[in-house]
Design brief:
about 170 residues, alpha+beta, Nuclear Transport Factor 2, Chain: A, 6 strands, about 25% strand, globular, signal, NTF2-like domain-containing protein
Length: about 170
Amino acid sequence: MRFTLCAIACLASGAVAKCLTEAAANRVANNFRSTITDYSTALAARVLSANFIDYSDGVNELINNGCPNGPKPLGNATFSSLADFQAGQASQPPIPFEILKIWYNCDTVIMRWRSVAPGFVQPEEPVTGIIVLETSCSKGKEPFLIDTVYSEFNSGAWLYDLGIFKPTNCTA
């Protein structure tokens, strides 16, 4: 049913593509990666929809443990609009990460990723996560825009890499 609705919506919008192809899914994944690794407002405006929203309890936890923009309640949107995301990304340094695997269907891209350099302590803990990118068709330069992001990752390792979280040895 979702495939049919996606195809109908794309055709109604006048977009050329009905569903994501492997090439389009890779483009969507790399576009999102670029909004994190090499952010610009122009890039975000080109690849994210006007209705953009981003959910990540992992990011909310980072905000709650060291950023002046907290608290962000877990379970709530991290960025509730395109402007909110643009302000957040523009205020932080680039975060390098590699895409490990991409899966897709008609309108959704899922990617597994890893960052080996998110923080300041040595040796750093690698941080691995998963991102689900819901898309919509577009008549613009990008055939698919990112509407909604669901992202989770090992925020404990990230907090350790930032020097905020210090694990202790536990004994039973």
